[in-house]
Amino acid sequence: MVAKSRKQTGKSPTTQTDRDKNQLVSPPGKSNARRPGREGKAFPGFHPNGLAGIRHKLGLTPSAVVKHGLTLLLAALTGYLHWLHLSQLFENDRHFSHLSNLEKEMAFRTEMGLYYSYYKTIIEAPSFLDGVHLVMNDRLTEYPLVINTLKRFNLYPEVVLASWYRIYTGVMGYFGIPTKMCWSINRGDGLTPVDSCEGMGDPAYFYVTCVFMLNGVMMSLFFIYGSYLSGSRLGGVVTTMCFFFNHGESTRVMWTPPLRESFAYPFLVLQMLLLTYILRTQNPSKTTMVALGVSNLCFMLPWQFAQFVLLTQVASLFASYILGYLSPTKMQSILVTHMITLAVCFILMFGNSMLLTSFYASSLISIWAIIAMRDHFAQVFKAGIIIWVMQGLAWVGSTVLLKFMLSTILGASDDAHISGLIKSKFTSYRDFHTLMYTCAAEFDFMELETPLRYLKTLLLPINLLVVVLVAGRLVYHSLQLVAFALLAVLIMRLKLFLTPHMCIMASLICSKQVFGWIGEKCKNQIVVFAVMAVMAVQGLANLQAQWAIIGEFSNLPQEELLDWIQDNTGPDSVFAGAMPTMASVKLSTGRPIVNHPHYEDAGLRERTKLVYSMYSRMSGETVKRNLMKLGVDFFVLEDSWCTRRTRLNQRSPDPEAPGRFVRLGGWGLRSPDPTPRLRGGLSDSGAGV
């Protein structure tokens, strides 16, 4: 129980074809009316007819304006409600408003703390450009190496948010407008009081608020997507209700704001919405294709896993092309957009080789070649199943061959652990890196409880019915659903793609083209409302279970650990230890570390293996020699890594087990002083995708 008393009002710091004929919904008509001429003089950008002129320019009738306006209004409302929902869940879970700055940083565990540390670096630098230079020439993350973290860690979200924060606090400070309110928090139990601040002037508050606002916009896009796909605003309502009723299966942004998916996924929703429009439009405009490319780019830049998701999308589109539901011309246009986006992303990521050596990049080239050779395939193979199979085999074979050729030529092996993880799913193959992943439940196969939860909210039955009815008209969406289902079954964490897509597909119960056999519009709506009422029984129970999560973040042992590091070690002291702990050490103390939770680099994986030899059966001399090679001064030892076993008989840390320092020096390893215990969130492997 804490007592909260107001301390001060702080001011912001001054620094810091598809078968086009099979469309379910007709595309919006284009106006052939010429732009009305100017009648007399007018100010630049001012139309003499006001809103009526804008409506005429867009080719919209008054009734269409009202309909679109109502759709946008409802979309904005759902987005606002989702933002409030996320913010409240986050506050309920951590009591974030009562935490000190150090406690807020500790609340960002594992890789979240690593990402947030670069945001902190930029906002605390003398200038924005100085901060960007620091993260592009980072000397703290993989000591003694100097790395470009923008290239390695997909940190553009942190760069953008840090620039916005500096602009916001600078402007507010200039006008003398307070941006945060600070309090003195009495933590009780003999603990010293701490200062806590709320408001957009607080760096952590600004960061998480922007994340939740972005995901509020995502919900607005879901409403628009469901409305467009089904041809009814009621479809948008069904989509958003399904998302809320299955919220725990759809997202985890409310628990893990800094993760890359929190920034990337909203742009995937926009990209899929634009792609759906393109597939339904006879001749999509260049503006639409550019918008598709931009949304693609915004999805790829924040998240290294985006390439795998886009691979499933391209594969689904190619299957639609093979089956004759997508014209070669439109397929090639989409491929060109993907290729250009990939090239731009490669440049902005400073030549990150994982992009060029990905299955996604190889697949784009392979599909382009197969489409270019379509006449040769038609001459050699008979039309029908044979040519479909041969094109599919040609795609798989050429993609795999090209991927490994590029990896060999460029000497890239950063994504080798992904292949190892997939291989371990179907064979007895195991190595250190696959075990680091499979220790965590989120990288295991989908648990049986997940489809049961889908069943209780009717999400699974509705999707099965919809897929049966639309498989011949909406081939891409059906195939994409299957692809997401396969990903989720293999790696449970990836159900964040499956569940929202199921919510989108559920909107089709409102489609007259799909369920017109029910009868007139009134009967169809009665059926939809009846279905939603049944869904709400379990859906509301799920929401109430989320709202009932009340907690308060407290990790005094780790707080003491970080304070000890600040007070008893020099700023150049180098640390090693478990990946989750190292992220916190770097974030809160600014000390150099040699390993961290971002596992998508071959060199870093080998470093981590050397560091974790502390928990092996190697001799003390061997362990010391390994760590001294990395220049380590201190090792944060967590005894629980040697005592607790997981379901796979693998060792993992106990959140209540002690941790201590081991200073490297003299003949062997010694622990000179008793040190704080480590607990609170150290029970996962720390490896992240």
From TrEMBL:
<keyword id="KW-1133">Transmembrane helix</keyword>
<keyword id="KW-0812">Transmembrane</keyword>
<dbReference type="Pfam" id="PF10034">
    <property type="entry name" value="Dpy19"/>
</dbReference>
<keyword id="KW-0808">Transferase</keyword>
<feature type="transmembrane region" description="Helical">
    <location>
        <begin position="305"/>
        <end position="326"/>
    </location>
</feature>
<feature type="transmembrane region" description="Helical">
    <location>
        <begin position="385"/>
        <end position="406"/>
    </location>
</feature>
<keyword id="KW-0328">Glycosyltransferase</keyword>
<dbReference type="GO" id="GO:0000030">
    <property type="term" value="F:mannosyltransferase activity"/>
</dbReference>
<feature type="region of interest" description="Disordered">
    <location>
        <begin position="665"/>
        <end position="689"/>
    </location>
</feature>
<feature type="transmembrane region" description="Helical">
    <location>
        <begin position="333"/>
        <end position="351"/>
    </location>
</feature>
<feature type="transmembrane region" description="Helical">
    <location>
        <begin position="204"/>
        <end position="225"/>
    </location>
</feature>
<protein>
    <recommendedName>
        <fullName>C-mannosyltransferase DPY19L1</fullName>
    </recommendedName>
</protein>
<keyword id="KW-0472">Membrane</keyword>
<feature type="transmembrane region" description="Helical">
    <location>
        <begin position="64"/>
        <end position="83"/>
    </location>
</feature>
<dbReference type="GO" id="GO:0005637">
    <property type="term" value="C:nuclear inner membrane"/>
</dbReference>
<feature type="transmembrane region" description="Helical">
    <location>
        <begin position="454"/>
        <end position="472"/>
    </location>
</feature>
<feature type="transmembrane region" description="Helical">
    <location>
        <begin position="262"/>
        <end position="279"/>
    </location>
</feature>
<feature type="region of interest" description="Disordered">
    <location>
        <begin position="1"/>
        <end position="43"/>
    </location>
</feature>
<comment type="similarity">
    <text>Belongs to the dpy-19 family.</text>
</comment>
<dbReference type="InterPro" id="IPR018732">
    <property type="entry name" value="Dpy-19/Dpy-19-like"/>
</dbReference>
